[in-house]
């Protein structure tokens, strides 16, 4: 999904896209943001016949779900590793790269990757109408995994092999929940950067952004806050709009007619920092990601450069830096355009890469809204009400329905209180999503691996010589746990 002008406008919808898979997906969606990823076509697409509704015996409709296979390391009797896809197209580059393949080589594992329903080429319905999206949920996705594991196990003679689920970000949650809900089908799970607790309001995300920026330079988040506050004040005066349009290289003259317009604009600019913090120094080059050279150090360097002018001018310089890095000619910050794209139900629409689907899941299951409602963060202007209104604008879902859906999710999965065994839960301290994850051991069989100084899904990416010692140790620790569990 090319990060052109239109794509950053989807960053709102993308404000929630967790990695998906931190790995097996591609895109730039609301929440689990990702930079541009280029997919690799070396592995042949395979297709699995899947039920549309696993929970209605009266509904016999089926569809084709995409998956990939890597048999390079498999040894007879070895385990089966299943990488779970998430809120974007499955990226075959992960069939050739990643820590899970290092483990697969050592254990002689067969490697499979299953794309998530409604993302990529796994299209169960003719379009993305709200009526059809009712078949998009984590529960249906887990049932997909269960049916896939059962049928593939029978067809390939793998029923007696030990299956291990892998996933990062939202798929990390799915990996944990797969083991939780289907323990007879999956022997163990590696649930990386998994936000297992659903919450409507998630201001802690931006609190972690503050701390992560401060870890580089204590003045950095203060400068960001000063710049953001200055911009908010200027937005109150329409006479400043022409200058703001030039300062941030907007695609059209800034027009603020509603609070949604200003919130969308402010969130877009904050997203430059949120994206970089979330994936700071992750080894993502093999995915074809653009922008991995822009780190917290780089952003704080710009914000501290007095030669660029006052903090507001430096904030604008960050925006221009990100546009240049992502090959964007200008920045589209019109909420009306975003609304148009997010309500386009065609599989060929700009939001069909995952934006429309993922935001629907946040409205009907998770929340995860990264609001500015906390005073302990550097931004302003996109409160919870802004996020909640999008659910109404896009799907006619109101605030009470969101709250009820989130409560049901925690009731169904247990939130932080996971009751299972053989699930390891790695998280990075720099990653804002760790605030909704498990960072301390629950039991000896539900260990956490909290990695200081690393970002979203860092342990999943290929090793390199620049890796922090604690990241190296974390990967080794997960390997030793798998070695122990696969003997059980």
From TrEMBL:
A GO BP annotation: proteolysis
Signal peptide segment: 1-24
SUPFAM superfamilies the UniProt entry points to: alpha/beta-Hydrolases
GO MF term list: dipeptidyl-peptidase activity; serine-type exopeptidase activity
Keywords, alphabetical: Glycoprotein, Hydrolase, Protease, Signal
InterPro entries assigned to the protein according to its UniProt record, in alphabetical order: AB_hydrolase_fold, Peptidase_S28, Ser_carbopepase_S28_SKS
Gene3D superfamilies tied to this protein: alpha/beta hydrolase, Serine carboxypeptidase S28, SKS domain
Family: Belongs to the peptidase S28 family.
Entries under PANTHER family matching the protein: PROTEASE S28 PRO-X CARBOXYPEPTIDASE-RELATED (PTHR11010), SERINE PROTEASE 16 (PTHR11010:SF117)
Full protein name: Putative serine protease K12H4.7
Taxonomic placement: Eukaryota, Metazoa, Chordata, Craniata, Vertebrata
């Amino acid at each position: 999904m090319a990060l052109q002008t239109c794509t950053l406008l989807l960053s709102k919808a993308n404000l929630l896209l967790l990695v998906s898979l931190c790995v097996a997906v591609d895109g730039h969606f609301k929440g689990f943001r990702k930079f541009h990823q280029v997919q690799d076509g070396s592995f042949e697409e395979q297709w699995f016949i899947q039920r549309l509704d696993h929970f209605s015996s009266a509904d016999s409709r089926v569809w084709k779900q995409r998956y990939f296979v890597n048999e390079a390391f498999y040894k007879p009797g070895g385990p089966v590793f299943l990488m779970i896809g998430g809120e974007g197209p499955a990226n075959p580059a992960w069939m050739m790269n990643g820590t899970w393949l290092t483990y697969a080589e050592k254990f002689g594992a067969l490697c499979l990757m299953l794309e998530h329903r409604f993302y990529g080429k796994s299209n169960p319905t003719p379009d993305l109408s709200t009526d059809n999206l009712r078949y998009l949920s984590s529960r249906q996705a887990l049932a997909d995994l269960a049916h896939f594991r059962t049928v593939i196990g029978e067809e390939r003679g793998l029923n007696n092999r030990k299956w291990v689920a892998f996933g990062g970000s939202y798929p990390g949650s799915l990996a944990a929940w797969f083991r939780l809900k289907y323990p007879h089908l999956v022997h163990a799970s590696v649930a990386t950067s998994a936000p297992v607790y659903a919450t409507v309001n998630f201001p802690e995300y931006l609190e972690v952004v503050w701390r992560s920026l401060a870890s580089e330079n204590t003045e950095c988040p203060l400068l960001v806050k000063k710049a953001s506050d200055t911009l908010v004040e200027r937005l109150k005066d329409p006479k400043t709009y022409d200058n703001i349009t030039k300062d941030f290289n907007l695609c059209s003259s800034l027009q603020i007619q509603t609070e949604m317009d200003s919130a969308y604009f402010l969130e877009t600019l904050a997203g430059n920092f949120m994206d970089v913090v979330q994936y700071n120094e992750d080894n993502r080059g093999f995915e074809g990601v653009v922008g991995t050279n822009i780190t917290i150090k780089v952003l704080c360097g710009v914000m501290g450069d007095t030669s660029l002018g006052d903090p507001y001018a430096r904030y604008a310089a960050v925006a221009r830096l990100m546009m240049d890095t992502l090959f964007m000619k200008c920045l589209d910050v019109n909420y009306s355009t975003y609304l148009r794209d997010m309500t386009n139900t065609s599989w060929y629409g700009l939001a069909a890469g995952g934006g429309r689907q993922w935001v629907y899941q946040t409205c009907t299951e998770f929340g995860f809204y990264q609001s500015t409602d906390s005073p302990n963060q550097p931004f302003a202007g996109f409160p919870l009400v802004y996020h909640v209104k999008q659910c109404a604008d896009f799907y006619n879902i109101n605030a009470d329905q969101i709250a009820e859906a989130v409560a049901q999710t925690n009731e169904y999965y247990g939130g932080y209180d996971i009751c299972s065994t053989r699930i390891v839960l790695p998280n990075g301290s720099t990653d804002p999503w760790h605030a909704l994850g498990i960072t301390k051991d629950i039991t000896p069989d539900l260990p956490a691996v909290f990695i200081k100084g690393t970002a979203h899904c860092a342990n999943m990416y290929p090793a390199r010589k620049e890796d922090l010692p604690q990241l190296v140790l974390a990967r080794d620790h997960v390997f030793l746990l798998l070695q122990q569990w696969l003997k059980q």
